[in-house]
Structures are given as structure tokens and as C-alpha cells.
Amino acid sequence: MSEATPARSLSAESRRSFLLRKLHSLTGALPVGGFLLFHFWTNAKALQGQERFDEAVAEISHMPYLPALEIGLVVLPLAFHAVYGVKLALEGRPNVGRYTYSRNWMYTMQRVTGLLAFAFIGLHLWQYWAQKWLGRMAPEEFYPRLCASMSSTVGGVPVMALIYIFGIAASVFHFANGLWGFCFSWGVTVSRRAQRTAAVVFGLVGLAVFVLGANTVVYFATGAPLPGTPSQAAEGARTCADIASPTVARGLAAPASH
Fold this sequence. Notes:
By secondary structure, the chain is an all-alpha fold. The protein has helices at residues 4-43, 50-61, 66-91, 102-133, 142-151, 159-185, 192-222, 240-243, 246-253. It has nine helices and no strands. The radius of gyration is 21 Å and the shape is globular. One of its GO terms (cellular component) is membrane. It is found in: Membrane. Keywords: Heme, Iron, Membrane, Metal-binding, Transmembrane, Transmembrane helix.
């Protein structure tokens, strides 16, 4: 009897760990991953000018039951995925030094980018979503504040814009590689051929999503999109080029004096 009790306990712990890992994979692919794509797409409306961006933000702000949706479909899944992901990253034992296969490197990069994405998303949520919830920033202030923040420099270096570029890169890699892991762990891609195909497809998806997010950051920082991408602002639309000149950017970024 005494020997069976530890065995049952170990079995229960293994099942709990298995279920938590499955839930972690599922939350990363669906609510968190879906929100990432939706958020990048919404922010890309900025390339059409402040009016179009404000309209997109207003449409979200006027959704019924928005607080419940934000907490239930974004905050809670994101919090679980982030906290449990940090636990997995700290417990993981990368073996790239012994077995330098591509999947081992991907495993290591998944853990590293997860930690970086966790820090970056926390920063972004605090800068904008939390400030809105605390009543310190109205939704119509997002556009000029983003223009000012991304275009501001320290010693000529656009520090915040670079943080956002690297943060987006880490988040997108974690998302795209996580989709591959989701399909593998849930039995969607069983054969090696299916796994190789999934790696190519999700790699291309990740590249497209990164360009979408990075293009928006470059626009907020410079007032113009990446070279080779068309400008979408209508004639006469108020753009970041009108707002985020160095002088205006410094003024918007500075705290108000009382």
C-alpha cells in the first residue's frame, strides 16, 4: 500500500503536467496568438492617418461587454500562458551544446523569445492598456503618444522604436514557432514531411506578421512606412509626419508641469 501511494501521486502529477502543457499550447495558439494578429492589424491602420486609427480604436472601445472580453479572452489566457511559460523556460534543459539539431535550437529560441516577449508585452500593456484602464490616457491619445514615443531619441538613437522592433521580433518568432509546436503536440502534423511543410508555412506567416508589425513601428518613428510598402494615408490626413517632429515628440513625451 505504501508503494502504491507514491506511484498514484506521481501519475496524478504527470497527468496534471500534461494537461497544463496542453492548455499552455492551446492558449498560445488561439486567444493569445489571435489577439497578436488582431492587434498588429488594428495598429497598422495608423498608416492611413490618425483619423482611421482613431476610428479603429473607437470601434474596439465601443464593443459591448468589452471589459469582460478583454479580461476573459486576453488578460487571463495571456497571464496563464506567460506565467506557465516562464516556469517551463526556467525548468527547461536546453541541449544545443550536445545536439545541435535545428529543433533543439528552436526549442532554446522558443524559451528565450518567450521570456523576451513576456517582458515586451508587459511593457506595452503598462504603457497603453493599463493607462487607459487607470483613466490616465484616453483612446484618442494613443496615436500622438505612439508617434512621440517611437520618434524620440537618446543620443540620436530611437531607443523605444528599437525596443519595439526587437520585442515584435521575439513575439512573432515565439508565436510562429509555437504554432509548429502546437500542431506537433496535438497530432496535426505526424509525418516528417508534414512537419517540414508546417515549418516552412509558419516561417512565412511569421515573416509576414513581423513585417506588418515592424512597418507600423517604422511609420510611428519616421512618419513614413518601410521602403517598398505603399503609403496608405489619404490626402490631407493627419499623419505621424505632422505630429512627431523632434521638437513635438520631445514635448509630448515630457511630463506635464503643474
